[in-house]
Design a protein that fits this description.
This protein is 25% helix and 22% strand. 33% of the residues are buried. The protein has 3 domains: 2-64, OB fold (Dihydrolipoamide Acetyltransferase, E2P); 70-235, Rossmann fold (3-Layer(aba) Sandwich), CATH 3.40.50.300; 248-308, Probable gtpase engc, domain 3 (Ribonucleotide Reductase Protein R1, domain 1, Orthogonal Bundle). Strands 10-9-8-11-13-12 form a 6-stranded mixed sheet, sandwiched between helices. Strand 9, helix 2 (137-151) and strand 10 form a beta-alpha-beta unit. It is globular. The chain is of the alpha/beta class and 310 residues long. The protein is built from 8 helices and 13 strands. It binds guanosine-5'-diphosphate, magnesium ion and zinc ion (ZN). Guanosine-5'-diphosphate binds at residues 127-128, 130-131, 160-162, 183, 185-191, 204-207.
Length: 310
């Protein structure tokens, strides 16, 4: 019998099985797990084979199907280790807010880089619009960000879970697809899921000083079927997104705004850091590539360099 992993708590997996039942299952000891060297061998969205032995023994996960794709990042718990957030995705819904707690462009760009490498489309959702005055400094910053990412062909939505705006459009985007919902704690993931499906009745949290103190709450990704069709995987508790498995030389190939320039550098293996006659750097100077994008790029290269030490 096949099944779809809806939640993982480390040793137990909630699996929606082909016979229509949802079960809490463990992994059979003999399963040859993917040689991915991750902190979680099975992720939400994994398709698994469940044993149907009738010898009275408990049903168990016996095998994992080859993944179509996955989103992976550095494990926040163990340096140098990798953690799969979710597998077999149709898209990533990246939830952002420039209100509180403000999402950094560094976080956005790391998520975009990872999804680009696995060819997973991303929708950028700017939430908490009710808190932003479009004439304020922050409102203008958001407009600039949206314009920039839109030029890179990303789909962009504006929502307010508080005032129930943009919910229909979000439902249209999520319909009949399997999406990973990713964004910092407090950005409004649970609130938006509740807006899409009030029967979920997920707990939403007051944003307290706790967030800034970085208190670690144990939270697990979970898949929710949507009334309109499709599923959303809520990935809670994400503070940072450390990219893994990149060589420095390939990063710029996944940055759509860099692409028109990368072939015009003097050196074919230019990393666009401090090489002479670098077309990317010239585009930054002329304003064709945003300075903040370039800074994020340099920081990602530093991350990769640091990770190599492990
Ligand atoms: N003003 C405003 N507050 C929101 C909005 N969406 C969520 N919140 C609030 O932000 C806090 C965190 O929301 P929650 O859904 O728990 O965020 P999560 O950690 O991403 O799941 C709660 O107090 C919500 O009421 C919004 O669009 N506007
Ligand atoms: Mg939540
Ligand atoms: Zn260059």
């Amino acid at each position: 019998m096949k099944g779809l992993v809806q939640k993982s708590t480390g040793s137990w997996y909630k699996v929606f099985c082909d016979d229509g039942f949802t079960r809490d299952l463990r992994v059979a000891g003999k399963v040859r797990l993917h040689k991915l060297d991750t902190t979680n061998p099975i992720a939400v969205g994994d398709e698994v084979t469940v044993s149907t032995r009738e010898n009275g023994g408990e049903k168990m996960i016996e095998d994992i199907s080859q993944r179509r794709n996955y989103i992976i990042r550095q494990s926040p718990k163990k340096r140098g280790a990798r953690h799969i957030l979710a597998a077999n995705l149709d898209q990533l819904i990246l939830l952002i807010t420039l209100a509180h707690p403000r999402t950094s462009t560094g976080f956005i760009d790391r998520c975009l880089l990872t999804s680009a490498a696995y060819h997973i489309p991303v929708v950028l959702v700017f939430n908490k619009q009710d808190l932003l005055d479009s004439n304020s400094k922050t409102g203008k910053q958001q407009q600039e960000l949206m314009d920039y990412y839109r030029r890179m062909d990303f789909e962009i939505l504006e929502t307010s879970a508080m005032e129930s705006t943009g919910i229909q459009a979000l439902g249209d985007v999520a319909k009949d697809k399997r999406s990973l919902l990713i964004g910092h704690s407090g950005v409004g993931k649970s609130s938006l899921l509740n807006a899409l499906d009030p029967s979920l009745d997920l707990r939403t949290k007051e944003i307290s000083k706790k967030y800034s103190k970085g208190v670690h709450t144990t939270t697990f990704a979970e898949m929710f079927p949507l009334p309109v069709g499709g599923e959303i995987i809520d990935a809670p508790g994400i503070k940072e997104f450390g990219v893994v498995d990149f060589d420095k030389g390939e990063v710029s190939a996944y940055m759509a705004d860099f692409l028109p320039y990368v072939d015009h550098c003097k050196f074919a293996n230019c990393l666009h850091v401090n090489e002479p006659n670098c077309a990317v750097y010239e585009a930054v100077l002329s304003g064709d590539i945003a300075e903040w994008r370039y800074i994020n790029y340099l920081r990602i290269l530093e991350d990769i360099e640091e990770a190599k030490a492990w």
